[in-house]
Design brief:
With 96 residues, this protein is of the alpha+beta class. The protein contains 3 helices and 2 strands; from the N terminus they run αααββ. Strands 1-2 form a two-stranded antiparallel sheet. The mean pLDDT is 83. The protein has helices at residues 7-17, 29-39, 44-63; strands spanning 78-83, 89-95. It is 44% helix and 14% strand.
Length: 96
């Protein structure tokens, strides 16, 4: 059977293999900002957030002609962004 592995599922396996608790595989924005302040010379607001916004805007522009707007409703898109070892953001996928 086919199955879709969510990022959480992938983290679960990766973190268990490294003996790290599953709770440590997900963090909120405040925790990320604190980590950046303590472990890098990167700042969320100035170094990373503008790049993430640029990825989101360019992704939406690339499909703007193929998205149908439905009357009396809205759709919310979820952007999964990965930060590499240099804190560069990369688009993994977009969910509807």
């Amino acid at each position: 059977p086919l199955s879709h592995l969510t990022n959480f599922s992938l983290n679960k396996t990766a973190f268990q293999n490294k003996n790290i608790s599953l709770e440590d595989s997900v963090c909120d924005l405040n925790t990320l900002q604190q980590y950046l302040n303590e472990n890098s010379n990167k700042n969320w607001e100035f170094d990373i957030k503008p790049k993430v916004k640029n990825i989101i805007i360019n992704t939406l522009k690339s499909v703007q002609d193929s998205i149908e707007q439905k009357n009396s409703s809205f759709e919310l898109f979820g952007f999964d962004i990965l930060l590499d070892e240099f804190f560069n953001p990369w688009l993994l996928e977009v969910n509807l």
